[in-house]
Amino acid sequence: MSEQLTLYLFKASPFSQKIELALAEANAPHKAYQVDLFNKPEWFASKVNPVGKVPAVTYGGPNVDPDDPSPLSAKIAESNVILEFLADLYPDSGLLPKDPVSRAKVRFFIDATHKHLEGSLLDFIRGRESSENTLKGIEFIQGLLEEGKDFAVGNHYTIADACISPHLARLKIITETDLGRFPAGMGYKLGEELKGPKFAKLMKYVQRMLERPSLKQAHDEESLIAFFKTIFTERAQ
User: Where is the signal peptide (predicted)?
Assistant: First the structure.
């Protein structure tokens, strides 16, 4: 692949990490530029993503420095859109199956992750709601996992796994450290519930994803814990 590809990301963002995982799994050559979301460069919104959010990618055009993106490159934003773009860009990676039914299952899993887990987990971490909806979302996701299969869909890593893995990594952190704006002890309590037999299938899947080389490469748990400690200084009562 000769076209330049640049990822604009924020390392602590689970949405950015989705793209890091897909790029690693596809063994895709690319450049990465860390965007400070607390002090975004003035050029980012005008030259990369008008919404000012990460992740975003530029593709094609001249091979320029990431902080001076070319107007000739394509600009693509929204994490799940980028996941599909990368799967199309690297069809031999298997990030999207060739079988239409399996492709549909991958897309359904991604949609389910978005609707049933992403929002509820982030709201729990931010102290906006209890863990009830997070547990419901986890149970729904577990119901999609097929017995005897190692991945979200079938026996090959796809963008469905890349989509959910960053959230699972953060779930591990909050249940082991109790870091978040939720009332003290609620992270530990959620972790204890997940250790029960009810969620055994899901937790085995979580462990497989955490052991994946692409996640180990993209996920710096110590740095993320340190970041959580700086932003979660107050708790909900």
Answer: none
User: pLDDT digit string (tens) for 101-134?
Assistant: 999 999 999 999 999 999 999 999 999 999 999 9
The neighbour count for residue 104, using CB atoms within 10 Å, is 12
Prediction pTM value: 0.95
Q: Maximum distance among all alpha carbons in the chain?
A: 54
Using an 8 Å Cβ cutoff, are 93 and 27 in contact? yes
CA distance 127 to 123: 6
For each of the domains in the chain, give its residue range(s) and CATH number, in order of start.
Answer: 5-93 (3.40.30.10), 100-231 (1.20.1050.10)
- 86: CB partners within 8 A, 6+ apart: 19, 22, 23, 26, 28, 93, 95, 159
Please identify which residue in the block is written with the tokens 């790029």: 23
CA distance 187 to 174: 5
